[in-house]
Amino acid sequence: MAQEETKKNNNLIFIIIILALLGVIGYLLFNNNQKSEKIVEQEKEIVLTNDSLKMKVEELEGLQLQYHSLQAQAAQLGQSNDSLNAKIAELDNAIANLKKGNAVNINKLNAQIASYKKDLEEKEAEIIKLREENKNLSSSIDTLKQDKAVMNDSINNLRSVRSDLQQKYELASILKAENIKVTVINAKAKELTSDEYKAKTIDKIKLTFNLADNKVAPKNTKTLYLQVIEPSGAPLFDSSLGGGFFKTSEGKEIPYTEKQNIDFNNTNQSVTFVYAKGSEYKIGTYTLKIWQDGNLIGTTTLVVK
Predict the structure, then answer these.
(1) Do the beta carbons of residue 139 and residue 80 sit within 8 Å?
(2) What's the pLDDT at 84?
(3) How sure is the predictor about 86, in pLDDT bands with cuts at 50, 70 and 90?
(4) With a threshold of 0.85, does the pTM exceed it?
């Protein structure tokens, strides 16, 4: 009887030990699983591939160019902005760290990029407001000559302190003509579309294009020039028809056929030139060039047979 009682007690102890071991094993498995999930999540947040790293660097550099654009516009308005300088310095540091391959938290980086974009929108609104205020105060400026002198001084000052980033900003500010289309209008005011045209059917040349998206370029008045070049290579220009001369970005003075001023607003806006030569067109290929403030931004041709 005693042996049977002892056997029952031993079995009970054995069962209790097994249950305790199962509990410990379950706890260890659960804890290990939690740690694994946490590590995976951290790796998702921290690790960036080479391609995504390059994309983030390019995105930050694009934002930096926009800050430099706002900084230049503020300087032209006679304003200094310490917060813009601080943001540019902050972006310098962030870009440098990314290029070194330092570990980053992707969620925090995306949040910071979103913060930069929101800040840029606010700063751009401030610049637009300042420009409007300056326009209202323009009546108090004594003479146009004084205004021109101030502008020239500002440009000279900007050139004297131009850094590598400012050179990138100026290049990035150049507009680009896209979706360029050339047609002709006959003497009956009918627009014709073809690969080539008979000389006797051409009364006017019509050129249309869009200005490509450019977030860096200041939203202000731009001067666009049309240069129509004959098959012989001679540019068409007549002062009585709106022609004249302008300087390229290299400082060379060249003739233009027509020009117009547009208020650039970065909305992929459409621009149209309509040119009437006033005499019959020569047989051959005409070259049409579009210039913006001294920079060539688009070219197309017109074939006359």
Answers:
(1) no
(2) 80
(3) confident
(4) no
Distance of CA 55 to the CA centre of its chain: 15
Integer Cα distance of 224 and 251 in angstroms = 17
Q: How confident is the model at residue 16 (pLDDT cuts 50, 70, 90)?
A: confident
- What is the pLDDT at residue 151? 64
pLDDT at 207 over 70: yes
